From TrEMBL:
Transmembrane segments: 6-26, 47-67
Source taxon at top rank: Bacteria
UniProt key word Signal: no
Stretches of the chain forming a coiled coil according to its record: 78-137, 197-231
Record's keyword annotation contains Oxidoreductase: no
Alphabetic keyword roster: Coiled coil, Membrane, Transmembrane, Transmembrane helix
Pfam family, one: DUF3084
Protein name: DUF3084 domain-containing protein
Length: 467
């Protein structure tokens, strides 16, 4: 600031000095009437004045340029400075745009972090549920193993009893052959022995039938144990979302033409795709198709449904898949291999048909014993229904009220009689299911009471339903 004032003052003083000097030189030249370049004296004086002014201007500029570097820069490098300023403004605008983009990315990253935290909480909840399910599965496995041991012991005892009865039958047959050779007055004794043999044969046949039923029930319980062990191993190794041959979706389809069949199959596969994506990637939004199924299999299903017949369509998993399957969650591509089973929906059991029978031990009967025999009856009925072609695993006691079953068991316990518990079809049962049954207490081929229209009929035992 001070140097500027000094420079201005120096320029003013120098200009005044040079102007005075030029005026004197011009005056002397005019008085002397000098002539330069053959000019008149006045023109010569004018030329000297012009030269003096040029010297003043040149000295002023030289002084300014020599003293002020900023002035030199402003005069000779102004265009360059303006170009640099424009570039600087463009860089500033780009930097501001980059700053806004970075702020947008930062906000997006913050939102993504919040969503990741939410998914982490959902995964933690799913893990807790899996742990609870594992504990429940272990309890069911222990209970099933205990039931299996009890059934095995009963089967062994029945085999021993059957062998003893067979030996007795052989002995009686031998006695009958010997008695046949004796005199006619022993005919009545022989007839009596024949009746005893027939009774024992019937008893043996009943025990053999019971043994066959127990063996079938044992096979069913062994299958359940195998399934529970598989589930336990899956839960131990990781969260299994789908097991091999697991039923994903069941539907009942019937179409009059190919268009209706295609509409049913499309909706069926879309629903199955939604269920599988929700099982494998809970909480994630997967819009792509993840089911892997052959076009020939789909076309064959459409052709079968187009015939106008009623079919039960099931979609089953072809392998084991865990929660968070990478090819589903990360790529979202078809990798869950499935296959379709279509079975004609036909009548399997008619109303009133007997599905299974278990024999109660002679009274008194304890609560635990009654419940175990009831569970065995239900398991045997479910096993037979599955063996006969019913695809549904749902088994319901008619009217589906717990108090009905409890009242029935209480009546059986209060009756004080050795009866057979039977599972009887409550409706016509088809392939699609479900299996709805009545519970009946039977003695000597006569139904004493059952769950249908249950009204505690101990005082007046009647046949409520014929076999």
């Amino acid at each position: 600031m001070v140097s500027g004032y000094v420079l201005i003052l120096a320029v003013l003083i120098l200009g005044g000095f040079i102007a005075t000097l030029g005026d004197r030189v011009g005056t002397r030249v005019g008085k002397a009437r000098l002539s330069l370049f053959n000019l008149r004296p006045r023109q010569t004086a004018t030329l000297v004045s012009i030269a003096t002014g040029s010297v003043i201007s040149a000295s002023t500029l030289a002084l300014l340029f020599g003293v002020s570097s900023q002035l030199r820069t402003g005069v000779f490098e102004l265009s360059k400075i303006q170009a640099d300023l424009a570039n600087a403004e463009a860089d500033l605008a780009q930097a501001q745009s980059t700053q806004e983009s970075v702020e947008t990315d930062l906000e997006s990253a913050t939102n993504e972090r919040q969503r990741a935290l939410a998914r982490l909480q959902e995964i933690n909840q799913s893990l807790n549920q899996a742990v609870v399910q594992q504990e429940a599965t272990e309890g069911e496995l222990r209970q099933t193993l205990g039931q299996l041991d009890a059934v095995s012991q009963q089967a062994a005892a029945l085999r021993q009893s059957t062998d003893a009865l067979r030996v007795q039958r052989d002995n009686l047959l031998a006695q009958q052959a010997t008695i046949g050779k004796q005199i006619a007055d022993r005919d009545r004794a022989i007839a009596k022995l024949d009746e005893e043999i027939a009774d024992r044969d019937r008893a043996i046949a009943q025990r053999e039938q019971r043994l066959a039923s127990l063996e079938a029930e044992q096979d069913f319980l062994e299958q359940q144990v195998a399934v529970l062990q598989t589930q336990y191993q899956g839960l131990f190794r990781g969260n299994i979302a789908l097991n091999r041959n697991q039923e994903i979706l069941v539907g009942q389809g019937r179409a009059e033409n190919r268009e209706q069949a295609e509409e049913f199959v499309t909706g069926f596969l879309l629903e199955a795709n939604r269920l599988v994506s929700r099982a494998i990637a809970p909480g994630a939004l997967i819009d792509q198709q993840i089911l892997l199924i052959g076009n020939r299999e789909v076309e064959a299903l459409i052709e079968r449904l187009s015939t106008g017949e009623d079919y039960v369509v099931r979609l089953l998993s072809a392998a084991n898949y865990v929660t968070g399957e990478p090819c589903v969650v990360q790529q979202g591509e078809p990798c869950v291999q499935v296959f379709i089973d279509a079975t004609p929906n036909q009548q399997v059991y008619a109303l009133g048909e007997r599905l299974a029978t278990v024999t109660l031990d002679p009274p008194p009967l304890g609560d635990r014993q009654l419940v175990e025999r009831l569970n065995l009856l239900l398991a045997a009925a479910q096993f037979r229904a599955r063996q006969d072609g019913v695809v549904s695993d749902t088994l319901q006691v008619a009217d589906n009220r717990p108090e009905t079953v409890l009242n029935f068991l209480e009546t059986v316990q209060q009756s004080g009689q050795a009866v057979d518990l039977q599972a009887i079809a409550a409706t016509d049962i088809f392939t699609v299911g479900p299996v709805q049954i009545h519970l009946a207490a039977v003695r000597d081929g006569r139904i004493l009471f059952q769950t249908s229209g249950f009204n505690n009929p101990l005082d007046d035992s009647t046949d409520l339903l014929s076999e």
